[in-house]
Amino acid sequence: MIQHVDNPIIEVHDLTVSYDKKPVLWNVDFTIPAGALVGIIGPNGAGKSTLIKAVMGLLPLSSGYTELFGQKLNDVRKRVSYVPQRESVDWDFPASVMDIALMGRYGQRGLFNRITAEDRSIARQALEQVHMLEFANRQIGQLSGGQQQRVFLARALAQQADLYFMDEPFAGVDAATEGAIIELLKELKSQGKTILVVHHDLQSAAEYFDWIVLLNTRLVASGPVKEVLTPTLLQETYGGKLSLLAQVGDIASSIGVGTRE
Amino acid sequence: MDAFWIILTGSLVALNGALLGSFLLLRRMSLVGDAISHAVLPGIVVAYLFTASLTSPFLLVGAALTGLATTWIIETLNQKARLQHDAAIGLTFTLLFAIGVILVATFAGQIDLDMDCVLYGEIAYVPLDTITLASGLDMGPKQVWTLGSVFVGLIILLVTGYRGLSLTTFDAGYAAALGFNTSFWHYALMGAVSLSTVAAFESVGAILVVAFLVGPAATAFLLTRSLKWMLLIASAVGIASAISGYYLALWLDGSISGAMALMTGVIFAVAFVWQMVAKRQ
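Predict the joint structure of the above. Result:
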């Protein structure tokens, strides 16, 4: 089930990405409508993070191309924002929460122009949106995992982009942060922004997203959530692993252990 | 007056090391500084063969290019040959250093460059090699001018490139996603490390310069969680090491550069113990 749309905000065309000649993404081809809140779902090693890194131009492509807003990435970079995985950086880096939020302005402002009062006010607003303004002067090394994730989101918000790519923003965060993030995503969506989120948890996927991309090296499905989250397509995405997961879930609940980390 | 020039030379070496070392430490690249300081040796020997001067600008440039080549080889071995970063560093700098050692031995008759000087430097002789203008005015030691120029260049790089360096150090992937050239900042930093290592090489030698790249930055990292303060504290620690090291060497009647390098370790140890005690309370 791969549903293509007219005037897509994202077009991924015949994309293949390899590490050491081993393909991680194989001939992936889909389109995303503007204003969608999209979940990229698939098992570990399915190439979900690779997909958004490839679209952001962070990895060499073996073949294919991607277009955003119908243009090449370099022409629309200021309209695109990227939230890397929280674990991808060293949080012992000497910086305050405000310093990180301000980094979101570097793209618009350039590295050599002065950061203005307007930039600071935008960064403060972004921190406010993720409820982190009161921690603006806190050193980032002192934050909890959920707070670190919110700072990363604030940095992306400070870019004031129209299109957001988020790599596992729900990984290892507390329930309060997860709730705050999903509120924020829905608010962004209501402002007409498009958001792609790499996501792990199948249970919440149906509730969070309105468009789903199912991925396992190859594209399994791309379309509205109700048409994509079907047992057949999930089975195809997760293969034997899904039934295994279901069994683990059954066992865990029978002995009273939660399966969520 | 000699004491002043020696301490000034040591302080400039320490300042350059402290500022660059802070970024190296945060990039987990402190050992790359070590690698560069050794690997520039063949560049220095070859440039010296052509210019017959240890303070010629060509020598600085030649050695700086060797330093850049070193980092490029390390990155290539790491990415293309999938060699671990530490193994790539070890392989590269020992190889280049060995070539340098062989060159020094082979051309020993033609050049005034012996291994002791290469390894440990001769900071005590710095005041002897001065620049004298045609009018007969003594402008002070050549080394101070060389190190001073590198320091000024470094300040310009840090002031204009502060955001570029800090962004690419903290989150290179995000910097690339914003459209910035992370390789440019990587090589700008590595070029600066090469230049300041070569400039420091005559006074403190290839081994001790590493102490100034790592010690002050590591001490500052223990004490603060603000990048600007880290750079300032590292600089202060560097200068304190140079001054206290000089007087320690006088008292011991020993190696001045050795004592200065020792003091970077001593100050780190004091900061470390102080931090442990402070945490307990």
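The beta strands of chain B are 130-132, 138-141.
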